[in-house]
Amino acid sequence: MIVDLRSDTVTRPTAAMLEAMTSADVGDDVYGEDPSVNALEAEAAALFGKEAAVFTPTGSMANQIGLQLLVRPGDELLCDVKAHVVNFEMGAAAALGGISSRTWTSANGRLDTALVEPMINRPHPYSTTTRAIAVENTHNMGGGTVQPIEELRALRALADAHDLGLHLDGARIWNAHAASGVPLSEYGALFDTVSVCLSKGLGAPVGSLLIADAERIERARVIRKRLGGGMRQAGFLAAAGRYALANNIERLADDHVRARHLARSLEPFGVCEAAQVETNIVLLRVRDIAQVARAAAEQGVLVSVLGPDWGRMVTHLDVDDAGIEHAVKVLGTLVR
Ligand SMILES: *Cc1c(COP(=O)(O)O)cnc(C)c1O
C-alpha cells in the first residue's frame, strides 16, 4: 500500500474524470474557440460572482498574471513571509513582473490586518509605492490555515482606503470554503483578482484559473500569451476541471476529517497539534524528519520534508480511511 501524503497535487484522474476528458468538445483556445475552455472559464467566474476567468496551465502562472495586473514594474506587493507567491514561484514577480515585494510575519500564516496597515507606502518622492496585497487562503505553509472572513473584510476596507489592489492566492480556496462555509462568491467579492487551482484537492491533472472583472481578464489573456501560457486544444484539460468543479468540492470535508483524525492519532507522540488542523494539511515537528520520512517511505507512507525538523502531510481524494490508519501505524511506530 502506498499512502502519498506529500501533497494534494499527487491525485490521479478517476475513470469518470478521464471519460469527461476524452469526450470533450475542443477547439483552438488561442483563437478563443475551445468550447470546453470557454465553459470552464464561465463556470469558474460565476462561482466567484465575477465577470470572467482565464484558464492557465499552473497556479503559479495564474498568480503571476494577477500580480502583474495589479502592480506595475518598480512598484510593490505586500504579502506574508511564507506566501507561495514569494517563496515557490522562482522569483517570478521580480524576474518577470519587475515587482518589488515586502513581507509580514504572522502566526500560522493567519492574516492580521493590523500588521499590514503600517507597511503601506503611499506614493512619495523616495519610497517604493505599495500597489497591492496578496493573501493566501488556505495558507499552505501556515498549515492549511483558513483566513477569517472578518479579517478579509477588514483588509478590503484597508485596501479601498489606500487605493490598493487585492489578490487572493486561492489555490486551496475550496478547502477554506468547505471548512468555513463562506460562499465562494463572498470570497470573490473581496478580491480584485483570484487564482484557483484545479489540480490539488479537486483532483484534475492540470490547470488553474485567474478570475477577475472582464477588463482585467482581457489584459490577462495578453500576459498569459506573453508567458507562453496560450494553449490550443486545452478543452481536454478544461473538461477535467469542469468535472472537478461539479463533483469534487463538497467531498473536501472528508479530507478535513481524515487530516484531523491523523493529527489526533499522532498528537500523543508530540509531533503535531490537532487543534491547529483546520483543513487538509498537518504540519509535523520531528527531529531529523528526513530520516523518519525515509523509513516511512520504505513502508509505503510518503510525507514532505520541509526543513531539518519539520514536514507536512496533506490529505486528498486518493487517500482513504485505510490509508490514514496505515500512516498512523507506520509513523506512530517511527516517532514513538
Ligand atoms: C500549489 C500552489 C500554487 C500553484 O502551484 P503550481 O504548482 O504552479 O500550480 C499556488 N499557491 C499555493 C498556496 C499553492 O499551494
Automatic annotation (TrEMBL):
Domain of life: Bacteria
Organism: Glycomyces algeriensis
Any GO BP annotation: glycine biosynthetic process
NCBIfam families: GntG_guanitoxin
Keyword S-adenosyl-L-methionine: no
GO terms for MF: L-allo-threonine aldolase activity
Protein name: Threonine aldolase
The Aromatic amino acid beta-eliminating lyase/threonine aldolase domain, residue ranges: 4-287
Family according to the record: Belongs to the threonine aldolase family.
PTM sites of type N6-(pyridoxal phosphate)lysine: K200
Gene3D superfamilies reported for this sequence: Aspartate Aminotransferase, domain 1, Type I PLP-dependent aspartate aminotransferase-like (Major domain)
Keyword Lyase annotated: yes
UniProt-listed SUPFAM superfamilies: PLP-dependent transferases
Keywords: Lyase, Pyridoxal phosphate
InterPro entries: ArAA_b-elim_lyase/Thr_aldolase, Low_specificity_L-TA-like, PyrdxlP-dep_Trfase, PyrdxlP-dep_Trfase_major, PyrdxlP-dep_Trfase_small
Required cofactor(s): pyridoxal 5'-phosphate
Gene Ontology annotations for the cellular component aspect, listed alphabetically: cytosol
